[in-house]
């Protein structure tokens, strides 16, 4: 397993071009299953999750030609096979193939994403929504099997929680369903809007994208289309937080700053001076930053995917900060590792209390999940001495060759292949 070796406290400056959104690319790649014509995509990030999704689709018989961040995908001749545990375990987003395959074939078999029964979590909202469109689900030895007697039928679906994945799954299934589907309490993340815009470019009839009520009129088939994926707002936010931690003029470019409003508001409350344009954000160094309190929430609230990164910044500012995590019940795995680097963070159920004015010192640390891992990279870049981050495969799922991006702005960082 690869490691990252980082020597901190280097003088970092310059600019970073942010790549396309992983969380937009994944559902958009899957949406090609609905189409028998070619979908041309640009700005797809070269990260493990998207590359694994491309492999999964090729396994279904999709014809895919790709070069770096652009690809053509044609799913005219696909065969319907079941998706095994190993793939779903590694990449939850593979659950998104349910909607398109059920819509196309009226049948789908996919492994449950790891040890959770349907009834309680974590795809219950997906399945109950799809059932409203006429799918019968049952569990068969760790697989969930979906069958449609005739064809999917539009319906009114109210989500108990604005689940991003469930909104995407139901939205894709509704596109070819007969009649009208209304999704209420839908997720409003920019990635949903991006998926919806891509579907509309293929000929889908969708209204209300980006709001909590989406209306879909089913169509019989979809056409050839091209689509450019939005910038990755979480990668962008990660690098904006890094520049605030370093108090240096790093410009984060090729972004959509409107997708980062909640982060911008938090950073302004902390005293960060930001120069903001539509497609870039730059930090103007200031004397001292101060603590604040944040609660993660569905979009447009503060994104859970930036919680770990913000925690690293909060460790450096004046005063005690708090973060309440409301989206995932166990998303503080980075805390013990940040504390090993010198942070002083205590947990009280879903609340993290972060002491400020700490100094990071290099150490051996362990990456645990995608965003937890990158918070360790941020801390290591601000730490005195050397840090080794183990299990960087977590990072590679959502950040394109992060060491290349960071070397470009002067970081001393090396990947040790093993
Ligand atoms: C998407 O995950 C993102 N992943 C996550 O990003 C992100 O953290 C999350 O949305 C929230 O914004 C992709 O887009 C590929 P949810 P998703 O369904 O769709 C519970 C990253 O780092 N839930 O909105 O899985 C669930 O357990 C990743 O890029 C159910 O209980 O998120 C969680 O507690 C991490 N039943 C909460 O809802 C369901 O049927 C939010 O889940 C579905 C979800």
How would you characterize the overall build of this protein?
The chain has 418 residues and is an alpha+beta fold. The chain has 14 helices and 23 strands. It has 2 domains: 3-19 and 231-416, Enolpyruvate transferase domain (UDP-n-acetylglucosamine1-carboxyvinyl-transferase, Chain, Alpha-beta prism); 22-228, Alpha-beta prism (UDP-n-acetylglucosamine1-carboxyvinyl-transferase, Chain), CATH 3.65.10. It has helices at 22-31, 48-59, 85-90, 98-105, 124-131, 164-175, 190-201, 233-246, 261-269, 307-314, 334-340, 370-381, 393-396, 402-408, and strands spanning 3-7, 14-17, 39-42, 63-67, 70-74, 107-111, 135-140, 143-148, 156-158, 180-184, 205-207, 213-217, 225-228, 250-253, 273-277, 280-284, 293-295, 321-324, 345-348, 351-354, 364-366, 386-390, 412-416. The chain has a 4-stranded mixed sheet. Strands 2-14-16-15 form a 4-stranded mixed sheet. Helix 5 runs parallel beside helix 6 (164-175), helix 6 (164-175) runs parallel beside helix 7 and helix 11 packs parallel to helix 12. The longest helix is centred in the middle third of the chain and has 14 residues, at 233-246. The protein starts with a strand and ends with a strand. Residues 115-121 have low confidence and may be disordered. Bound molecules: ligand EPZ. Ligand EPZ binds at residues 23, 26, 92-93, 121-126, 161, 163-166, 304-305, 327-328, 370-371, 398.
